[in-house]
């Protein structure tokens, strides 16, 4: 004789997240630990736990209600499909999941006693708890890395600047040395130039003295000749 039972669990996630994960193949597989093929379309066939469970979507209300036919590999040909109805309600700790499992074969009570708890509710709590921790952790971890990257970049830029300054300093000193070396012959040349000027100045006075003596000697001769004629 088939029977019906009801179970509840608190899942640390929003009703929308639980609804989406249940009807998503990857989400359902990661959530339970067994391979699943799910769909969010009414009438689509579904499976879970590596084919141990098979069924079909009967009714779907996004974020609120999931109704599926449910059959395990332990069902015999004489057993009809069972039906699971999942109701999702938002509460303080996340989502209150209420599961009603109907038309279950009377001799298969392991689902009510431990099957749903160990194979769905506990893995779902762990799955969504890990997702919350994973979202909360990266934020503080990224900040020091960026600061460290900025610090290392500033150190590298400072090192490059000092290296460039050190490379420029010998170049400037070399230029100054070249300038001083070139300036020395110029000064020597300027000192050597006055020597011919001095020699010219020595020669010129000699020429002036000869001409002046000649002029002086010529004038008195003319005066003497004039006086003789007058007498």
* Helicity, as a percent range: 55-70%
Provide the domain count: 2
Q: Which secondary-structure class do the elements indicate?
A: alpha+beta
Using only CA atoms, what is the Rg?
Answer: 56 Å
Low-confidence stretches: 136-153, 183-231
What is the CATH homologous superfamily assignment of the largest domain?
A: START domain
How many angstroms does the end-to-end distance come to? Answer: 191 Å
Separate helix tally: 5
Give the amount of beta strand, in percent: 15-25%
The SSE order reads: EHHEEEEEHHH
Average predicted local confidence, pLDDT: 75
CATH class of the largest domain: Alpha Beta
Number of E-state strands: 6
Assembly annotation: single chain
Side by side, the strands of the main sheet go 1-6-5-4-3-2
């Amino acid at each position: 004789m088939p029977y019906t039972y009801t179970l509840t669990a608190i899942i640390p996630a929003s009703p929308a997240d639980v609804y989406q994960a249940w009807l998503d193949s990857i989400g359902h597989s990661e959530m339970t630990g067994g391979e699943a093929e799910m769909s969010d379309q009414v009438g689509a066939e579904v499976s879970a736990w590596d084919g141990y469970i098979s069924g079909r979507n009967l009714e779907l209300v996004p974020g609120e209600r999931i109704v599926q036919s449910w059959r395990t590999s332990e069902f015999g040909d004489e057993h009809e499909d069972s039906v699971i109805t999942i109701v999702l309600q938002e509460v303080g700790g996340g989502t209150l999941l209420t599961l009603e499992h109907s038309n279950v074969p009377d001799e298969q009570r392991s689902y009510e006693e431990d099957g749903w708890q160990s194979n769905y509710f506990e893995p779902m709590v762990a799955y969504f708890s890990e997702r919350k921790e994973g979202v909360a952790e990266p934020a503080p971890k990224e900040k020091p890395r960026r600061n460290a990257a900025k610090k290392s970049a500033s150190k590298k830029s400072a090192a490059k600047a000092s290296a460039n300054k050190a490379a420029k300093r010998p170049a400037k000193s070399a230029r100054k040395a070249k300038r001083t070396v070139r300036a020395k012959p110029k000064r020597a040349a300027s000192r050597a130039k006055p020597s011919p000027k001095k020699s010219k100045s020595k020669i010129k006075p000699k020429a002036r003295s000869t001409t002046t003596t000649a002029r002086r000697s010529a004038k008195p001769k003319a005066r003497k000749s004039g006086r003789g004629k007058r007498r």
